[in-house]
Amino acid sequence: MGQEQGGGSWFDALTKRFILTINEEESRELERCAEAEARNFLVVKTRWVLLLLITLYGICAGGFFYFSRYGFFLSRLQMAILVGSLVAVISYNTVFERFYPRIGRIPFINHVQILLDILFVTILIQFSGGAASWFWPVYLIVTIEATYLLERKRDIWLVEICSLALFGALLAGHYFSLLPSVDMPFVDVRLHHDPLFLILIWCWVAILNITVAMIGGFLVSVIRQDNEALRRGEEQLINFFDTANDFIFSIAPDGRFLYVNRTSQDELGYSQDEVCSLTLDDVIDGTSKAECLREFQQSMAGARATPVEILLNARNGRTISVEGTFSCSFKDGVPAAIWVICRDVTERKETQAQLYHMAHHDILTGLPNRFLLIDRLKQAKALAQRLKQHIAVLFFDLDRFKIINDTLGHSVGDKLLQEVARRIAGCVREVDTVARIGGDEFTVVLVNISAPLDAEMVVVKIQKSLAQPFVVDEHELFVTASIGISVFPGDGDDPASLIKKADIAMYHAKGQGRNNHQFYDKRMDVNAENRLALAIGMRKALDREEFRVYYQPKIDILSGKITAMEALLRWEHPEFGLLLPADFIPLAEETGLILPIGEWVLKESCRQNRAWQDQGLPRIRVAVNLSGHQLQQKNFTETVNNALEQTGLAGEYLELEITETIIMQNPDFVVAVLSGFRDLGVHISIDDFGTGYSSLAHLKRFSVNTLKIDKSFVQDVEINATDAAIATAIISMGNSMNLRITAEGVETEGQLLFLKENFCDEVQGYLFSRPLPAADVIDFLRNGIRQRGVKGDTSGKSD
Predict the structure, then answer these.
(1) Can you tell me the distance from the alpha carbon of 684 to that of 676, in angstroms, rounded to the nearest whole number?
(2) pLDDT over 50 at 788, yes or no
(3) What percent of the chain has pLDDT over 70?
(4) pLDDT one-digit tens code per residue, 332-373
(5) How far apart are CA 715 and CA 298, in angstroms?
(6) Residues 12-35, buried b or exposed e (16+ Cβ, 10 A)?
(7) 653, 621 in Cβ contact below 8 A?
(8) Residue of 778, 792, 775, 712 whose CA lies nearest to 746
(9) Is residue 340 part of a domain?
(10) Are 485 and 342 members of one domain?
């Protein structure tokens, strides 16, 4: 009868389990029903074949007899009984074929159809010769049906007992003449009453049926064991798929989901019922559809599976990145299902993206770093060449940022850098690139500009933005920047070269007094080489005693008396000659050498003033300019006190000049430091007043004695109404706050007259004296301002 049709293929089991949303017990019951239905279907088909063969045989046999010398021997009653039996078998076979899903749950329904087969086989034997009939082997077929259709062995043996008992009753009926026998050709009628023949035929039928039952039962049990093993394997495979951490799903060639494992359902957020109504197109992200379709078609064409990365859209809107393969299973050479096995690589992709971002961006500000800057600059260069446009590279360095970082801590410094980055980025276009390449250095790439002057407009815009105060952790901070500009193609072709030349221009801007911008010029390369030579020589300059202190007097505008001498540092370089502070002080601040140099200037000035006093010269103050790096030192007040004690100079004869820009970078810290100086009796001056961001509110907090009007406002007071107004306002403000006002850079009698008429207190400049070496100051102090012609430093004062 063939092999048992258990649960079908493992794929059928998968899809069946996927489609049915039921519990495990109900699933097993349905599987048992499905198996019983499959067995019944096979038995029914076999029965149809047997009925057809028996019917054809009966028709042929009847025809042969009819035209033979025996004639047709069946009576009408016998024919009616045979036809009725045939109709009955056809009827119940049809019922079992069409309605088995409904009647299959009836207890012992399979026993019933086997007993019906035995009954009608017995009727066929009775009307085909009775005890001597040729059709008794049909019992063997019914026995095979029983071994296949019935699961328990005892049921098979009970059916066999019923079959043999019914056959025995038939034989006994003939022996005792209880049943009429049908005379058949070739059969001796005396056999119906021969006990030996009847016993032997019954035993022969019994032996054959028992043998067939044993062999059939054994074979069927083996088949069932194999099917059970296959079913367990399928169950394990299904459990493996359902419990796998990977996404596993099967898709029909038209894109419908045939199977989706639990991991896929959980991650995508769809239930089994919902997935059944979806297609692959519903869950694939739009950016992956083209690639997914290509892999889908290649797999159906039988191409070898290759790993592919696609994006899936979960129900909650989350995008899941997966990596896997497409493979197709074929049936009769036609694609049956496409299997997709992939794993969630979202976290890995996010980590890769994060690592990529970290490798190409500054962690603190989120701006591109030097590596990405070079790449962007290469792309901008290629675009500019095609469009015949310019590129500008802006190199920013925040002025005196280290002071803020060291005084308020790195936390405040970091937040300030973040805010500076935001302001710079807010001043450029989206197509431009703002990068942080280290420390307080930023670089901007301006793409597709028509002329270098366009870059200058952006620089001015950024400078105005940075000029606004920054509020960080309740600290009001002021920041300026020195900016260098290089332009492609005029200043170079290589990205690294453009950045380097913008850097050189930035250092030139610092040399011009900071808080300005400079375009790169080839002559700056010489300055860059000189800077390197200065940086190397500066480390040995103190030991070689190459630094000199020059002094420029401050004059009381009413009495004409000298009130102070401002100490101005010079470097007598063995190769470059006498250098001004602007040539080396910025470099000293960058290298950190400003601290030992500044301390030497402080002590040397105090020593010199004390020496002048010991020589009987007028007691005046000596004014020393402070660097922001000195001011931010926590123990700087102690350093000043030590200088006074070691030289024996009283604090009232020392004046410390601090630029307005420096004190406004961190007003809160400066207030505490200036209070310490006041306790020492030191005179405090705010240098270059008017060029920074001071307000009356801030001035009230500082313990200062003097405001120095920057020379840029003094030079044109005779001809420029604006400068005259500013100078007048500063003088008036200082007088109202009981502060002394000193004007620097006085060079003409007209400037002196203007300052005197507006009640300025002190003046300083070439009109009275250039900076003098210490040896020439003695004569100047003795002779007063009449010695204007004394030969001194012709280089003047520079920050």
Answers:
(1) 11
(2) no
(3) 91
(4) 778 888 888 888 888 888 888 888 888 888 989 999 999 899
(5) 83
(6) ebbbbbbeeeeeeeeeeeebeebb
(7) yes
(8) 712
(9) yes
(10) no
